[in-house]
């Protein structure tokens, strides 16, 4: 099975998980907004523009060569280093009325220059706007004095000193930009998490995935059956309460549609023997088998339900019948077929329970009475519904040889794709006729 990206499936995935995407994105935006507006302290910026001139500029000469201008431009790179050196910063720190070390001050300073310009800018950032202005001006003044002292020339000119402006605003805290980024990040995280979860989820989820992976039709979907607290039955058991007794029963229409598709299937023969199994145990095959048998009987078809799960039978529990005699006693030669067929409360429906639990049913399935069992049942009934063990046992391989068609029951969100793939391949290996797949406990 190779992975194929389907854009329609992707958008369906997003639509199914729109609540997760909406709330996760909203949560990220909310957290980002709170942090931006209330947690991160605002930071202000002070800027001092510095002009670097040549010797002739300083003397007022009009004949300045290109090489001299180029020399002044190269000086800017030198001055970048000088400004951030202890030679400049230590005297500046003495003028700053704040407890701060050189390393901390360095993190607040930036030097900005424009290409092919003799002007560069000293930028200082601080949470206190006035302090940022004072530090920027102090560094600029110390720098000018130090360069003038070293060269004994007035090459440095402070064009625009930093000043306190009533309209100053924080430079690093941009709520609109931060919220926009958080919105994008939230969408990315939410869509990404949903996509990764779907990619890592190896269970069967949808009808489209079944068709794409296995090229099999979905015969029907059965929603989870809920049992009322005060509902009771003869045996007071959950399985019996989930049978579709009448039209008021939960999932009546779902099973009705399922049976209609089974009867109208092109592969159905006159004496239809249907085997119902699942990739693993506890996926709803026994309940599906019982309800399919009931619905077939309601359509005036003479139907028999036969519990062939001799390792862990449940048919007698579902129909509240005795399990003293059944398939195992017939195959062992202890009873005749007429002795193990029981009547149910549903007209046209007969039940054959499993009989006593058998550790190794394969030995019984290899006997002559095994084929005799189904030969006689085909004569007596229009429809035979086989409640089979799951595909993780060898029993189903023997039973499928007696079935005209096989139905695979899977549980969305529980049945794994690889287990279903193995089950389908096993049935195909013995040329079993796979009628389709039933999605049991499919959420609406």
From TrEMBL:
<keyword id="KW-0812">Transmembrane</keyword>
<dbReference type="GO" id="GO:0004715">
    <property type="term" value="F:non-membrane spanning protein tyrosine kinase activity"/>
</dbReference>
<dbReference type="InterPro" id="IPR003856">
    <property type="entry name" value="LPS_length_determ_N"/>
</dbReference>
<comment type="similarity">
    <text>Belongs to the CpsD/CapB family.</text>
</comment>
<dbReference type="GO" id="GO:0005886">
    <property type="term" value="C:plasma membrane"/>
</dbReference>
<dbReference type="InterPro" id="IPR027417">
    <property type="entry name" value="P-loop_NTPase"/>
</dbReference>
<keyword id="KW-0547">Nucleotide-binding</keyword>
<dbReference type="Pfam" id="PF02706">
    <property type="entry name" value="Wzz"/>
</dbReference>
<dbReference type="Pfam" id="PF13614">
    <property type="entry name" value="AAA_31"/>
</dbReference>
<protein>
    <recommendedName>
        <fullName>non-specific protein-tyrosine kinase</fullName>
        <ecNumber>2.7.10.2</ecNumber>
    </recommendedName>
</protein>
<keyword id="KW-0472">Membrane</keyword>
<keyword id="KW-0067">ATP-binding</keyword>
<keyword id="KW-1133">Transmembrane helix</keyword>
<feature type="domain" description="Polysaccharide chain length determinant N-terminal">
    <location>
        <begin position="5"/>
        <end position="95"/>
    </location>
</feature>
<keyword id="KW-0829">Tyrosine-protein kinase</keyword>
<keyword id="KW-0997">Cell inner membrane</keyword>
<feature type="transmembrane region" description="Helical">
    <location>
        <begin position="20"/>
        <end position="40"/>
    </location>
</feature>
<dbReference type="InterPro" id="IPR005702">
    <property type="entry name" value="Wzc-like_C"/>
</dbReference>
<keyword id="KW-0418">Kinase</keyword>
<keyword id="KW-1003">Cell membrane</keyword>
<comment type="similarity">
    <text>Belongs to the CpsC/CapA family.</text>
</comment>
<keyword id="KW-0808">Transferase</keyword>
<dbReference type="GO" id="GO:0005524">
    <property type="term" value="F:ATP binding"/>
</dbReference>
<dbReference type="InterPro" id="IPR025669">
    <property type="entry name" value="AAA_dom"/>
</dbReference>
<dbReference type="InterPro" id="IPR050445">
    <property type="entry name" value="Bact_polysacc_biosynth/exp"/>
</dbReference>
<feature type="domain" description="AAA">
    <location>
        <begin position="284"/>
        <end position="431"/>
    </location>
</feature>
């Amino acid at each position: 099975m190779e992975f194929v990206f389907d854009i329609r499936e992707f958008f369906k995935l997003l639509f199914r998980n729109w609540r997760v995407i909406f709330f996760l994105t909203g949560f990220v935006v909310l957290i980002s907004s709170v942090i931006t507006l209330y947690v991160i302290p605002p930071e202000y910026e002070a800027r001092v523009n510095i002009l670097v001139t040549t010797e002739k500029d300083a003397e007022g000469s009009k004949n300045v060569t290109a090489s001299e201008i180029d020399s002044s431009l190269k000086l800017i790179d030198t001055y970048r280093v000088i400004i951030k050196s202890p030679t400049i910063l230590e005297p500046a720190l003495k003028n700053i009325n704040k407890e701060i070390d050189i390393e901390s001050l360095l993190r607040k300073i930036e030097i900005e220059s424009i290409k092919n310009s003799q002007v560069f800018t000293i930028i200082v950032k601080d949470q206190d706007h006035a302090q940022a202005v004072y530090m920027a001006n102090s560094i600029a003044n110390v720098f000018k004095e130090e360069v003038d002292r070293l060269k004994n020339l007035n090459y440095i000119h402070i064009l625009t000193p930093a000043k306190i402006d009533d309209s100053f605003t924080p430079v690093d805290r941009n709520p609109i930009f931060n919220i926009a980024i958080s919105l994008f990040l939230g969408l990315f995280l939410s869509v990404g998490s949903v996509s990764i979860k779907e990619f890592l989820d190896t269970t069967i989820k949808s009808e489209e995935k079944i068709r794409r992976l296995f090229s099999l039709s979905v015969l029907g979907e059965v929603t989870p059956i809920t049992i009322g607290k005060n509902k009771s039955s003869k045996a007071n058991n959950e399985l019996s309460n989930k049978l579709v007794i009448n039209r008021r029963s939960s999932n009546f229409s779902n099973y009705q549609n399922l049976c209609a598709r089974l009867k109208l299937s092109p592969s159905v023969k006159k004496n239809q023997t249907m085997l119902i199994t699942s990739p693993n145990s506890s996926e709803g095959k026994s309940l599906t088998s019982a309800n399919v048998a009931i619905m077939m009987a309601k359509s005036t078809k003479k139907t028999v339900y036969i519990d062939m799960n001799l390792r862990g039978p449940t048919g007698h529990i579902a129909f509240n019948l005795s399990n003293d005699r059944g398939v195992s006693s017939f195959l062992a030669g202890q009873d005749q077929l007429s002795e193990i067929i029981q009547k149910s409360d549903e007209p046209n429906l007969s039940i054959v329970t499993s009989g006593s639990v058998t550790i190794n049913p394969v030995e019984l399935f290899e006997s002559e009475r095994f084929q005799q069992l189904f030969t006689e049942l085909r004569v007596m009934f229009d429809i035979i519904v086989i409640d089979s063990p799951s595909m993780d046992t060898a029993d189903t391989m023997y039973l499928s040889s007696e079935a005209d068609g096989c139905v695979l029951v899977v549980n969305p969100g529980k049945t794994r794709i690889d287990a279903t793939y193995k089950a389908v391949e096993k049935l195909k290996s013995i040329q079993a006729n796979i009628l389709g797949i039933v999605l049991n406990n499919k959420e609406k």
